[in-house]
Write a structure and sequence with these properties.
The structure is a single chain. 17% of the residues lie in helices and 21% in strands. It is globular. By secondary structure, it is α+β, with helices and mostly antiparallel strands.
Length: 66
Protein backbone atom coordinates (compact mmCIF):
# COMPACT_ATOMS: atom_id res chain seq x y z
CA UNK A 1 0.00 0.00 0.00
CA UNK A 2 1.23 3.49 -0.79
CA UNK A 3 0.09 6.72 0.77
CA UNK A 4 0.60 9.84 -1.34
CA UNK A 5 3.81 11.45 -0.08
CA UNK A 6 3.87 8.70 2.53
CA UNK A 7 5.36 5.30 3.18
CA UNK A 8 5.03 2.05 1.26
CA UNK A 9 3.57 -0.93 3.11
CA UNK A 10 4.08 -4.48 1.93
CA UNK A 11 3.14 -7.79 3.44
CA UNK A 12 3.47 -11.36 2.25
CA UNK A 13 0.14 -13.19 2.49
CA UNK A 14 -0.54 -16.93 2.06
CA UNK A 15 -2.93 -16.28 -0.85
CA UNK A 16 -4.61 -13.46 -2.78
CA UNK A 17 -8.23 -14.18 -1.95
CA UNK A 18 -10.55 -11.41 -0.81
CA UNK A 19 -10.92 -12.89 2.71
CA UNK A 20 -7.15 -12.71 3.08
CA UNK A 21 -6.64 -9.28 1.47
CA UNK A 22 -9.54 -7.27 2.86
CA UNK A 23 -8.58 -7.32 6.59
CA UNK A 24 -5.02 -6.33 5.68
CA UNK A 25 -6.16 -3.45 3.47
CA UNK A 26 -8.71 -2.28 6.03
CA UNK A 27 -6.10 -2.34 8.82
CA UNK A 28 -3.99 0.29 7.05
CA UNK A 29 -6.53 2.32 5.06
CA UNK A 30 -8.62 5.29 6.11
CA UNK A 31 -12.33 4.97 5.14
CA UNK A 32 -12.23 8.50 3.71
CA UNK A 33 -9.42 7.51 1.33
CA UNK A 34 -9.44 7.08 -2.43
CA UNK A 35 -8.22 3.52 -3.02
CA UNK A 36 -6.75 2.61 -6.40
CA UNK A 37 -6.39 -1.01 -7.52
CA UNK A 38 -6.61 -3.04 -10.67
CA UNK A 39 -9.86 -4.78 -11.68
CA UNK A 40 -9.18 -8.05 -9.90
CA UNK A 41 -12.45 -9.34 -8.39
CA UNK A 42 -10.95 -9.66 -4.91
CA UNK A 43 -10.97 -5.85 -4.65
CA UNK A 44 -14.61 -5.29 -5.65
CA UNK A 45 -15.91 -4.84 -2.08
CA UNK A 46 -13.58 -1.90 -1.48
CA UNK A 47 -16.21 0.43 -2.94
CA UNK A 48 -18.42 -0.32 0.08
CA UNK A 49 -15.66 0.49 2.58
CA UNK A 50 -13.79 3.49 1.16
CA UNK A 51 -14.98 6.89 -0.04
CA UNK A 52 -13.70 6.21 -3.56
CA UNK A 53 -12.44 3.09 -5.29
CA UNK A 54 -10.84 3.60 -8.70
CA UNK A 55 -9.65 0.70 -10.81
CA UNK A 56 -6.94 0.57 -13.45
CA UNK A 57 -7.90 -1.35 -16.57
CA UNK A 58 -4.61 -2.93 -17.65
CA UNK A 59 -6.11 -3.97 -20.99
CA UNK A 60 -6.74 -0.33 -21.97
CA UNK A 61 -3.58 1.60 -21.10
CA UNK A 62 -4.21 4.71 -19.05
CA UNK A 63 -7.94 4.05 -18.56
CA UNK A 64 -9.58 4.10 -15.14
CA UNK A 65 -13.03 2.95 -14.17
CA UNK A 66 -15.02 3.44 -10.99
Amino acid sequence: MVQRDGNVRTQILPDRTAPMLMPTIMKHGNPSACVMTDEWIGYHNLKTIYATHEKANHSAKGIRSR
